[in-house]
Amino acid sequence: MADTNALVAKLEALGLGEKPVEHAAVENVEQWAEALAGASGVPAAYTLTKTLIFKPKQPKSEPVAPVLVVIKDDTVADAKAIGRELGFKELRLAGEEILADVFQTSRGSVSPFALAKVPEEQIGNVRVVLDKALLSDGAGTIAFHPLDSTRTVFVDGACLQSFVKSVDGLKHVTEIDFVALAAAAPAVGEKAAKPAKPAAAVPAKAEEVTGSAKQGIEASKEKDFATWYRQVILRSEMLDNYSVSGCYILRPTSYFVWQEIQNFLDAGIRAMGVRNCYFPMFVPEEELNREKDHIEGFAPEVAWVTKAGQSELAMPLAIRPTSETVMYPYYAKWIQSYRDLPLRLNQWNSVVRWEFKNPQPFLRTREFLWQEGHCAYMTKDEAWSEVLDILTLYRRVYEELLAVPVIEGVKSEKEKFAGGDATTTVEGFIPATGRGIQGATSHYLGQNFAKMFGVVVEDPEATGPERPKLHVHQTSWGLSTRTIGVMVMTHSDDKGLVLPPRVAETQVIIVPSGLNSKHTAEDRQRTLDACLAVEARLRRVGVRASSDLRDNYTPGYKFNHWELRGVPLRLEIGPRDLEKQSVLSVRRDTFEKAALPLDGLEGVVELLLHKIQDDLLIRARATMHERVKMVLRWDDFVPALNSKCMAQIPWCEREECEEQIKTRSTRDAQSDEPEDEKEPSMGAKSLCLPMKQPQNPPIVAGETKCIQCGHDAKRYALFGRSY
Amino acid sequence: MADTNALVAKLEALGLGEKPVEHAAVENVEQWAEALAGASGVPAAYTLTKTLIFKPKQPKSEPVAPVLVVIKDDTVADAKAIGRELGFKELRLAGEEILADVFQTSRGSVSPFALAKVPEEQIGNVRVVLDKALLSDGAGTIAFHPLDSTRTVFVDGACLQSFVKSVDGLKHVTEIDFVALAAAAPAVGEKAAKPAKPAAAVPAKAEEVTGSAKQGIEASKEKDFATWYRQVILRSEMLDNYSVSGCYILRPTSYFVWQEIQNFLDAGIRAMGVRNCYFPMFVPEEELNREKDHIEGFAPEVAWVTKAGQSELAMPLAIRPTSETVMYPYYAKWIQSYRDLPLRLNQWNSVVRWEFKNPQPFLRTREFLWQEGHCAYMTKDEAWSEVLDILTLYRRVYEELLAVPVIEGVKSEKEKFAGGDATTTVEGFIPATGRGIQGATSHYLGQNFAKMFGVVVEDPEATGPERPKLHVHQTSWGLSTRTIGVMVMTHSDDKGLVLPPRVAETQVIIVPSGLNSKHTAEDRQRTLDACLAVEARLRRVGVRASSDLRDNYTPGYKFNHWELRGVPLRLEIGPRDLEKQSVLSVRRDTFEKAALPLDGLEGVVELLLHKIQDDLLIRARATMHERVKMVLRWDDFVPALNSKCMAQIPWCEREECEEQIKTRSTRDAQSDEPEDEKEPSMGAKSLCLPMKQPQNPPIVAGETKCIQCGHDAKRYALFGRSY
Fold this sequence. Notes:
By secondary structure, the first copy, chain A, is an alpha+beta fold.
C-alpha cells in the first residue's frame, strides 16, 4: 500500500508533480466547475471527470471485484452496459465501506489516484474502466482530484494511461467508448417502442416511445433543482461553462432564443418611435460617479480596465454596468430645445456586473446581453405612459414568445432602481423552487438624472426673454438574457429542455423509424426520401423542420437526443406509416402521440405547434395561479413560502416593515423547518405591488391593516423568496 | 493692459483658477477634441468652443472695431448675419495684425480671455458676441484655451459671462441665438429657389433649390478631406465624439446602416448553415497567449481588466481583440468526431483594440462592432470554399447595400492575418485621398490553430483500433462598422452625407413648400395634409418616408437640414404642385429635379430610389476603375500614387520586395514632391493580389519581371497608399 508521500513521488515521476490547484472543498461536479473557474493557474480548457466505484453482484465465495470507472463528467455511466462489457451481471455503486477499506478514500474524494492506495492483496481484483473519450488527443487536458476534493490536477490522457499502467499488481484495465456504448444500447429502446403502435391516433404515454439509452438528465427537477438546471442547460447544449468564473458561452440553441426575442422586441420599440444606437462600453471613472445613489448601487460590481498593451491608463475605465451615466451627458448636449423632445434611444449590448454572489447561468452572470432603452420627455405623463407601454412589451415577450406567465407590478421603495423614482416590473415565478424572479424592469427616473446631468429645455409655454428652464422626465428600461433562464426553469422536465415552438431553432425533428433487418435497401431509401420530402414541405411553409438521417444511431437514441434538446415536435416516419399515408407525431411537452395524415400535413403541424405554444402558457399560468396565496394573517405567511408559494398580503408599504418581514420570515422559517441544504430557507422580500389588485377582500382605507406590523395597509403586495 | 500674471489672478478670482488641462498644441477643433479625449482631468461632457475675431468694413476715419465672437464649435458664424445684428455692413475674419496688436495673441490661441489683454485705449471699441447656446444651463461645461492652444480650461456659461463683465472698459457685449439666426436667414434661400420652377420636369442644378442658411459643411472634400470627414459625420449626426479617446457614439443614423448590414449578412450566413452564438468578452491571459504569431499581432493593443469593485483580480482578463483564442478551446471540446464537422459559428459583438495610432471614426476605433465567423471543417477544400463564399457576401454588402465597389483579392504574406494561412479581402478605395482601405477579410486559418488548441478528429477513412488523428481546417472572417466610414467617404459631398437608399433610415423626406403670406390657412392645411397623405402612401409600400412639418423653419432651412443628413430623395409639395396633381422630387446624389405625378407616385418613387442606389455604385465604380493604373515600370509607380491612384504591377510576391517597395516609394515621394501637411506622402503597401488578374499584357512565367526588383513576376498585385 502506497502512502501519500509515495503517491506524490509517483505522480511526480509521471510528470504530474506540478502543484495541484487548490480550492474550496466541493461536493459535486457543478461546485467543482465553479471552484475551478474562480481559481488561478487553471488551464484555458479542460474536461472534468468523475470517478465512480461500483461493486458487481458476485457469488459470496468470490473476492470482491470493485470496478473503478473514470469517465467524463457529462457522460452517463450506464451500470448495466459496463457490467455487460466486463462480464458482470449487475453493478451497483459501492458503499462507503469499499471506498474506505479498498481505496482508503471517501465519497467526493475518489480519483484514479486512489488506485495507488489499494492494498497489495486487493489490487489484483480491481477492475479499471477508462472512458476512451478521455484518452483521445481531442480530449485535451483532463481534471482530477488527486487526493481529496480541495485540490485538482490537470493531466492529459497519456498521463492517465501511464499512471494506471504504473500501478503495481493491477491486472484488469478496460477502455470503453461510452458514446458507442450508448449508441448501441437503444436496441432496447427500439423494442420498448413497439407496444406504442405507431398508427394509433390515441394519445399514449411518453415512456412508451422513448428509448432507454440513458443519455440525458439524471437529476430530478423536483428533488435537486440546482443540479437539474445545470444538467439541462449544459446537456441540451444551450450553454457551456467558460474559463472565467461567472461568464458562460451562449451556444446556438440559446442564442437563437435571444435573436427571436430581439426581433420581436426591436420591431416593437421601433414601431413606438424608439431608435437604436450604440454607446461605447467604457465609462471614465468620474462620469460613473456623477449620480450618487446610482453609483452606490453599482460601484461594488464594476469591472475596471487599467491597462492597455503595456501601458497603464491615466484614468481607469469602467466597463458599463448600465448606461445612464454614459448616455445622459450627451442627452444634455443633444437636447437644446423642447423641440428636441422626446429623445428616445435604445441599445443592444452587453453589460458587466462583477457579482460576487454565486453566479447562476442566465439568471446572474458577470457579463450578460440585454437591451437598454433611455428616453427623455417634456412631461411626466408622457414618460409614465412609455414606462407602461414598454412593460406591456416585456410581458408579451414572456407570455407570447416564451410561454411564461408574469405578474405586472410596481417595485417597493427598497427594491426600486438606484437613482430612479419608480420601477415597474414583470415578475416571474419558478414553481419548482417556489421563488419569484424579476423578469424585466421599466423605470420612471423622474428628473433626478436630468438634474445631475443638466438635461434641460426652456419652458415652451413661458414667454419673455428669460424663460424658466425645465428638467426633462426620463425613463430607462431593460430586458436581458435572464429571460432564457426563466423559460428553461419553467417548462423543462426530467427529460431535458422543453422549448416553446416560437423560439425553438428546430421546431420539428423528423426521424425515420420502424426499419429493421427484414426491410430492403429500397424500403430504407423510400423512408429516408419520405423524411426529406416532409422536411421540404414543412420548410416551404416556414416551419423550422429538420431530419435526423444519421445512420450510426438508432431511432431511440435520436428520440432522446432531440427530447433532451427540447425540440417541440417529433415526426416519426417508417414503412408502415407510409403504407397508411401518415406520420406519427410526438409532442415534447406532453409526449402525446397522434397519427397525422400526410395529406395536408403542413397545416396540421402548424396548428399543433400553435397548440403546444398555447398549452405551455396555459399550464404555466395555472401553476402560477395556484401558487399565489392570499395571506391575511402573519401566521400563514411562512407556511405559504414553505409550500413554495408567493404570499399576497395587505401591506403598509413602509421600508422598515419590509426589512422586518425579511428578518422575521427568515427566523420563522428556520425554527419551523429542518434546514434543507439545497434550498436554504431564506427570508421573503417584496416582489411587487401588483397592478391588478385583488378585490376580494378589498383593501379598505383606514380599516385593512398590514399583516406584519398592523399599520394601515395601502395595497396588496406580493412577497416571496426570490432569485 | 493686463499681463499674464494679472490674467491668471483674474481667472482665479472668477473661480477659474483650477489648473488648466495641458495637452499637445492643436491647430483645429478636431485636433483639440482628440487631445482632450486623451487627456486626464477632462470632464465627462463638455462643449468645445471657437473664438473668432472679425473686422468690420468701416470708414477709414473710424477707430477699428474688432468683433470677438465666442460660439459653439459646430455652429456656423454667419459673418453677414452677425454684421446685420451689430449694424455693420460687412465682417471679415481679422488678420494676424489685429490679433497681435489688439489682442496680444495669434491664430490658434484666440480665446475670450484675450479680452483681458486688450490695451485700455482700444477695449472700448471691441464688440463681443456670445453664443446664447453657451450661456444656457443646458450648455453644461464649455471648453476654452485660456492662453494658448496647449491648455484648456472648463467653465460654465455663468463664468464666461462674469469674466466678460469683469473686463474693464468693455462696452459692447451682445448675446445672439445663432440657431434662431440661422432659422431666420433662409428667407433668402426661399427667394433663390424661385427661379427653379417646381413644375419643370427637366433636371436643374442643385444650387438653385438649396437655401443659403449656412448650416452644414464648411470644409471641402477635395481640399481638406480630414476636416471634411469629421464635419460630415458629426454634423449629419452619424456619430458623436465620446469622452474616451478613440471611442465614438454611433447615433441612430449610422446604427441604422449597421442594422441593415446585419440583417442582410445574418440572413446570408444563416442560409449557408452558420449558427449564431455568444462567447464572453473576457479572455484569461494565458489563453490569449496560446498562439504565438497570433498574439504577437494583437498583444500591444489589448485592454486589460485588472480590478473588480475594490478587488484586484487574481488573473488579469483581456477584453477580446478577436475571438480565435476565446473560442477554439471549446471547439476542441465540442468536436469529438468527424460527425461533429463542420462546426460553423458566428457572433455579433464588439471588440477592443487599443490602437495608439491616430483614431479615425469608423475606420480605426478602439472599440468597434463587427461579426466574427469561425468554422471548422474536415478538409481544406471545404474550408476554402467557405472562405470564398463569405468573401462574396462581403462584396455584396459593399456593392449592393452601400453602393461601394470593392476589389476581391488575396493578401500578401506580409499583410495576412496573424496566425492564419491565407487572407482574402475585399479592398475599397477612397478617391478623394487616393488611398486603399481593407474592406473586410475572410481567412483560411489552415490547421495552425487546430494544432495549438488540439482540435482533432479520428480519420473516418482509416480502419483499425488506432485511427490517426486529423487536425481540422479552420476559417475565420469578419466585417465591421468600418464599412460605414468607407460608405461615407465614397459618396458624401460638400453638402454633407449622401446615403444609399437601401441603408437610409429616412429614404424620402417630404417638405411642404411654396406657401407664402398670400396663402390662406386653408391652403396651408391642405398642403400639410397632402404631405401626410403622400407619406402614408409611401409607407404602405414599405418606403421609409417622413414629413418635415415643423412650423419654425423655412423650407430652405429644411432642405439643407435633410441634405446634410443624406436623405436620398426629397419631395416638395406646395399649392401649385397640388393644382397640377404632382410633387417635385429632388435627388440628394445629383440634385436632379423632376415633377412626379401624384397618381402612381409609389411606383415612381420606388424606381427612383432604385435608380439612385444603382447610380451611386455605377459612379463610384467608374471612378475606381479610372484609378487603378496599370504600372509596368518603376518610374511610373510613385507618380501613379501621387495622382491618387492605385498601381497594378507585375510582382514577385516576395516579402523582402514588399518592404523595399514601401521604403522606396516613401523616399521617392519625398524627393519628388513638397511635403503636404494634411496628407503626408506615405509609402505604398500591397493591397491585394486581385482575383481577377489583368490579361493584357498577361504575366508570362519566367519572362515577366517584377517592376521593383527584377525577379520573376508571379501575378499582378495592387499596391497603394492605404488606411
